[in-house]
UniProtKB/TrEMBL annotation:
Belongs to the type-I restriction system S methylase family. Keywords: DNA-binding, Endonuclease, Hydrolase, Nuclease, Restriction system. This is Restriction endonuclease subunit S. Pfam families: Methylase_S. GO terms for molecular function: DNA binding; endonuclease activity. GO terms for biological process: DNA restriction-modification system. Residues 119-177, 230-391 form the Type I restriction modification DNA specificity domain. It comes from Acetobacter estunensis. It comes from the Bacteria. InterPro entries: Restrct_endonuc_typeI_TRD, Restrct_endonuc_typeI_TRD_sf, Type-I_RS_S_subunit.
C-alpha cells in the first residue's frame, strides 16, 4: 500500500507501538474513558445485543440458541458509541475480533466490558485502534488467571495512541470509507461461495435421488422432500441398514494425559471434527458419524480406521454392503427435517434410526459416489480460491486499520490527494 506519511515522527515510549507522528500523544485508557456500570434494573431495555465477529448485532430473544439468563436485569445498558470488549479466554487465538463499537441502544451480557469515551475523543477512532491492538494480539499478553481474563482495573492502563480530535475524526471517516469498500468485496465473495455451495448441493441431491439414468422409470418414494425415485431403488429406514451407537465422555484432561495417535472426534466441524489424539481407540472400521447435540446437530462425516467419538457423536456401522459416501449424502438430504430445533438443537439415535433413504444397487452407489467426488473436487478448488481472496482482503483491511491508527498514513493528505 502506497500512502502519504506524516512529515515527522517520534518514539511513543511504548515498545510494541513504536514511532508515532510528532503531533500525537499516548495516554492510558482510563484518562479517555470510563467503564459503564449501568445495569438493566427494572428491565429498562429489551433490545438484546451481542458481540459477533467484530460487530455489535441485535438479537431476537425469541429465537435464542444460546444459554438464556435467569433475568435480563443482570445485563448492562449499552448506548450508541459505547465500545464493547470480550476479554475472557484470551489464550484462545481463534477467539479474535474481541471488540466492537455499538451503533444501537440496548443491553448486553455483563460478562463483557463496556466503556464510554471522553468528549475529547472520537469513539469510532478508539474502536478502530482497539481493533488494531486486537489483531496484533496486544490483549493476550495482559491476561492472567485460569481463563486469561481482564477486568477494567487491569485493562485501564492500556496505552492509547491519541492524535488531535480532528485527526481522530478524519481517520475514522477514512477507515469507514476504505473498510466499507473491502467489506463489500468480502461480502460479494461470501455470496458467491454460498451460491456455489447451493449449486453443488443441487447437483448432488439430484444424483442421490434420481440416479444417473435420465430415462429410468420412476416411482413415488413416499418421502415428501425426496419425491420420485428410480423404480428399482429401495426405500429403507436406517435401522435396517446400520447398527447405531454413541461415543463416550472424553475430557480435555483425558486427552492431555493420554496422548497418542488415535483421533477423538467431537461435535465441532472445524479440523474435520478432531478434538485431539489419545493412545487408545473405541471404534475400528468404516463408519458414518454425526453430531447429536448443539449448533452442528445433524452434521455427518465418513470415518475410517481406528478412532474415538465423544458423547455428542452418534455412530452408524453398516449391517450390509454400502457405499458410505453415497449414503452420507442421502442422509444429509433428510436430517434438517429431523433435528429438534430449540435452545440446544438435537438429533438423537432414536430419531436418526427412523430416517428413510432411497438406495440403488451397490454398483450404482459406487458410480454416483465417483461422480460426487469429481464434483466435490471441482467446487472445492473454486471455493478455496475464493476463500483465499477473502483472507487476503481481511489481511489488507487489518493492515490498513493498523497503518491509519498508528500514523503510518497521513489520511488527511491522502484525502486531499484523492480529491485533487
Amino acid at each position: 500500500m502506497s500512502f502519504p506519511k506524516y512529515p515527522a515522527y517520534k518514539d511513543s515510549g511504548v515498545e510494541w507501538i513504536g514511532k508515532i507522528p510528532a503531533g500525537w500523544g499516548v495516554a492510558p485508557l482510563f484518562s479517555i474513558s470510563t467503564e459503564n456500570r449501568d445495569k438493566n434494573t427494572g428491565l429498562k431495555s429489551s433490545n438484546t445485543l451481542s458481540l459477533s465477529y467484530g460487530n455489535i448485532i441485535e438479537r431476537d430473544k425469541n429465537n435464542n440458541f444460546g444459554l438464556l439468563p435467569d433475568s435480563y436485569e443482570t445485563y448492562q445498558i449499552v448506548k450508541f458509541g459505547d465500545i464493547i470488549f470480550r476479554l475472557t479466554d484470551l489464550q484462545n487465538d481463534r477467539n479474535s475480533l474481541r471488540s466492537a463499537i455499538s451503533r444501537y441502544n440496548g443491553i448486553i451480557t455483563s460478562a463483557y466490558l463496556s466503556i464510554k469515551t471522553a468528549k475529547n475523543c472520537c469513539p469510532f477512532y478508539i474502536s478502530y485502534l482497539m481493533r488494531a491492538y486486537d489483531c496484533e494480539k496486544v490483549f493476550y499478553s495482559m491476561g492472567g488467571g485460569v481463563r486469561q481474563s481482564l477486568n477494567f482495573k487491569e485493562f485501564k492502563y492500556l496505552p492509547v495512541i491519541l492524535p488531535p480530535l480532528p485527526e481522530q475524526q478524519a481517520i475514522a471517516s477514512f477507515l469507514d470509507r476504505e473498510c466499507g469498500k473491502i467489506d463489500a468485496l468480502i461480502a460479494e465473495q461470501e455470496r458467491l461461495i454460498a451460491l456455489l455451495a447451493e449449486k453443488r448441493q443441487a447437483v448432488i441431491s439430484h444424483a442421490v435421488t434420481k440416479g444417473l439414468n435420465p430415462n429410468a422409470p420412476m416411482k413415488d418414494s413416499g418421502i415428501p422432500w425426496i419425491g420420485m425415485v428410480p423404480e428399482g431403488w429401495e426405500v429403507m429406514p436406517l435401522y435396517l441398514l446400520f447398527r447405531l451407537g454413541r461415543g463416550r465422555v472424553i475430557s480435555h484432561e483425558e486427552i492431555h494425559e493420554n496422548g497418542g495417535e488415535y483421533p477423538v472426534y467431537s461435535s465441532q466441524t472445524e479440523d474435520d471434527g478432531v478434538m485431539g489424539y489419545i493412545n487408545s481407540f473405541d471404534f475400528e472400521g468404516d463408519y458414518i458419524t454425526w453430531t447429536t447435540d448443539g449448533a452442528n446437530a445433524g452434521t455427518l462425516f465418513v470415518r475410517s480406521g481406528r478412532f474415538n467419538c465423544t458423547n455428542v457423536c452418534g455412530t452408524l456401522f453398516a449391517s450390509k454392503i454400502l457405499n458410505l459416501y453415497f449414503v452420507k449424502e442421502a442422509i444429509s438430504l433428510s436430517v434438517k427435517y429431523f433435528v429438534r430445533q430449540d435452545i440446544n438443537p438435537k438429533l438423537m439415535n432414536n430419531v436418526m434410526s427412523k430416517i428413510r433413504i432411497s438406495l440403488p444397487t451397490y454398483a450404482e452407489q459406487n458410480r454416483i459416489s465417483e461422480m460426487i467426488a469429481v464434483i466435490d473436487e471441482k467446487y472445492s478448488n473454486i471455493s478455496k480460491k475464493m476463500r483465499k481472496q477473502i483472507t487476503l482482503l481481511k489481511e489488507r483491511r487489518a493492515a490498513l486499520i493498523s497503518a491509519a491508527v498508528t500514523g503510518k498514513i497521513d489520511v488527511r493528505a491522502q484525502s486531499k490527494a484523492l480529491a485533487a
